[in-house]
Amino acid sequence: MTNEQSASARQAPVTVVGLGPMGLALAGALRGRGHRTTVWNRTPGKADRLVATGVRRAATVAEAVSASPVTIMCLKDYETMYEVFGSAGDALRGRVLVNLNSGTPKEAHAAAGWAAERGVSYLDGAIMVPPPMVGHPGSVFLYSGSREVFDEHRPTLASMGDPRYLGSDPGLAVLYNTALLEMMYATINGYLHATAMAGSAGVPAVEFAELAIGWFLPAVLGPMLAEEAPVLDKGEYPGDLGTLEMNLNALDHIARTAQEQGVQTDQPRLMREIAARAIADGHGGKNYLAVFEVFKHQAR
Ligand SMILES: NC(=O)c1ccc[n+]([C@@H]2O[C@H](COP(=O)([O-])OP(=O)(O)OC[C@H]3O[C@@H](n4cnc5c(N)ncnc54)[C@H](OP(=O)(O)O)[C@@H]3O)[C@@H](O)[C@H]2O)c1
Questions:
Q1: From ligand 1's centre to the CA of 75, what distance in Å?
Q2: What does the DSSP 8-state code read for residue 133?
Q3: Carries keyword Oxidoreductase (predicted)?
Q4: 145-169 pLDDT, tens per residue?
Q5: Atom 20 of ligand 1: nearest residue by CA position
């Protein structure tokens, strides 16, 4: 038995549904940890590179779900989940579905009810790191819902990052996710707007970052933003690891969560509007930092 074969024998088979930048990272990490990994995506060609590393590509969602006891889904949102798994018929019955896309607590509760009606063991979750950090032991993944499902499948979940269980209310993972992301977006927006203010006097972003990041920014975002400062000066924002469209979706979930939870909504709505403006200006396929293009000019 080769080393890879013996690792595979220890690890549970797993299916990943959804191969955007995040789903690709999840499947790659699981395969890398020796799980027999099966994938399905609406656009099948996105699995080509994974297939070359030994990942199996299923032709249908039903075939993908039937290949493993656990299916990890990472789609755009909950609506997409119903669309995709609606075609799976009875294949999900008796299996475990772990939902890692973003959404609101209300949507998570509805999904847990939908799963229960179909005899599916359901765990809701959220990913707190970008795709390149998936698979690192310190990368936080939040989970809520069935404690039994979490405990039983913890080793599989640990192959993607550090699994944290928040409680039996299935809405808690997305609630924490939207709260933490709100903090992240507000911090990045503050930094980008301040960089545009300094830029109005001809100060390059690289120069401003040298002072601003050391003076204020927290340890997690600081190094990332310092590395990206030359990107701001160039005005190039590649979207290969996550697009502004994807971030607008997350900002929409934050604004809707604030509404659902009965807290003030102006702050998240404003951030959503700024991202929507950047998309209307043609930056939808670029990464989130492209909102800098909005901050550099007066509102029209
Ligand atoms: N990227 C990040 O940095 C990041 C970080 C943390 C969490 N997340 C979360 O992870 C989830 C996935 O994000 P992502 O960046 O991978 O990309 P995304 O653009 O949010 O989602 C892309 C995935 O959804 C599928 N999809 C969209 N509409 C569909 C439909 N109508 N029918 C079937 N499939 C559909 C896409 O299929 P096709 O390939 O066929 O288009 C693709 O598999 C999101 O909920 C996001 O909030 C992302």
A1: 4
A2: G
A3: yes
A4: 999 999 999 999 999 999 999 999 9
A5: 76
Q: How far apart are CA 196 and CA 204, in angstroms?
A: 9
Q: Ligand 1, atom 10: nearest CA belongs to which residue?
A: 101
Token pair 């390059």 is found at 204
Test site for ligand 1: of 22, 142, 177, most ligand atoms within 8 A of the Cβ: 22
Shared domain for 99 and 238, answered yes or no, is: no
What is the per-residue pLDDT across 50-67, written as a single tens digit (0 to 9) for each? 999 999 999 999 999 999
Give the position, in ligand 1's atom list, of the atom nearest the Cα of 241: 1
Find the 17 Cα to ligand 1 centroid distance in Å: 10
State which residues form the domain around 288: 175-295
pLDDT (average), residues 125-153: 96
- Residue of 108, 126, 59, 115 whose CA lies nearest to 92: 115
Domain count, the chain: 2
The whole-number pLDDT of residue 4 equals 45
Residues 165, 183: one domain? Answer: no
User: Which of 227, 236, 229 has the alpha carbon at shortest distance from 204?
Assistant: 229
